[in-house]
Amino acid sequence: MVQVIDAPAHKRLHVVAGRFNRQFAADVAHHVGVGLTEANVATFANGEVHCRYDDSIRGGDVFIVQGHGADECGSVNDALMEQLIMVDAARRASAKRITVVCPFYGYARQDRKSEGREPITARLIADMFEVAGAKRMVSIDLHSGQIQGFFSHPVDHLTAMPVLAGWLETLGEDLVVVSPDSGRVKNAERYAKRLHAGLAIVYKRRIKGEKNAVEAQAVVGEVVGRTCVLIDDMIDTAGTMCAAANQLHEEGAARVLAAATHGVLSGPAIDRIKNSVIEKLVITDTLPLPPEKQIDKIEVLSVAPIVANAIRAVFDDNSVSEIFDGDNLS
Fold first, then answer.
1. Which pTM does this prediction carry?
2. How far apart are CA 50 and CA 287, in angstroms?
3. Residues taking part in catalysis
4. Are 224 and 287 contained in the same domain?
5. Number of structural domains the chain divides into
6. pLDDT mean by block of 10 residues, the chain; 330 residues
7. What range defines the domain where residue 324 resides?
8. Which has the closest alpha carbon to 68: 56, 53, 82, 54?
9. Minimal CA–CA distance to 259: which of 236, 283, 276, 242?
10. Is 287 exposed, middle or buried (CB count within 10 Å of its CB: 0-12, 13-18, 19+)?
C-alpha cells in the first residue's frame, strides 16, 4: 500500500531590498503589509558585492526590489550587479519563486540595433536575470513594450497612469496632452483618452553626431491658449522635454507642464528645467531624487502602492491587469 503524506500549503512572502532606492522598497513592503527581509548586502575592499539573507527563505515567494539608477551607492551597473547577486543568493537558498521588481529597468533604451555593430543590451539584462534564477519580472512603464518578449518567464508590466492621471485631473478642463516626439504618441493617446483631453504632438529632429541633442520643429494639434502637459515615460537630460516645451510656448500655449514616470535627470537636466518654460514637472519615486536635484519645479508622486498591489496579486495568483482595468496592456 502506498502511503500518502498530505501536507498543508504554506506560502510565505518576502520583500527584499537592495541598497539602491531603499526607501521605495520600504514603502512597497509597508503597503504589502510585511517587513523587509534583510539581505545584508555589503561591498568588500576590492569592490566585490556580497549578500547573505538573515532569515530562511526556503520555499518562499521572494520579491527583490531594486531600481536601476545611479545614486550615492553607485552607478546603474552597480545596482544591476547587486540585484543579480541577490537573485543568485535567493536561488541557492532554495526560494520557491524569485521575482525581480525593477521599478525602472536599466538599459531599456537599448532595445534594438539602430546602427550596425551595436548591442541589444535590454535583452542582455533579461538573459542575466533568468540565468541568475529569476522566474518573473515586475516593472513600471518600460521604455518599449517589446522588452517583455526578452524574458521567457512572465513579465508584469505596470503603469504609473493612475497616479499621474490623478494629478493631471487637477489642472482643469481645457487640457491638452502632448507627446514630446512621434515615438511616444501612443502613450499620450492613452492619457488623452482617459482624461477626455485634447492631443498634440511635437515633431523633433535629433542633431546628427550629438548625443542627447534634439531640436523641436513643429506642433501638430491645437494648443493656443490652452494648458499643455508633456507626457513621457522618462526624463533623462531633459533635452527633448525642454525643446518641446519651448515649441509649445512659441505656438501660444497658456501653460506648459510635464509629467514622466522615471526621473533619471542626469547631466544638465536640472539646469535645463530651471531655465525652461515648464511650470511644473511631476515624476514618480521609481528612482530616488537626491537633495541637490530637489527644486520647486519638481514634484514627486509615489507609485509604491501600485507595485505593492501587483506583488500581492502575484503572490495570491490573481490577475495583475485587473488592477489597471487593462490600461497597462494597451
1. 0.92
2. 23
3. 204
4. yes
5. 2
6. 55 95 97 96 97 96 96 95 98 98 97 94 98 98 95 97 96 94 91 96 69 69 97 96 95 97 97 98 97 97 98 95 75
7. 13-159+305-329
8. 82
9. 283
10. buried
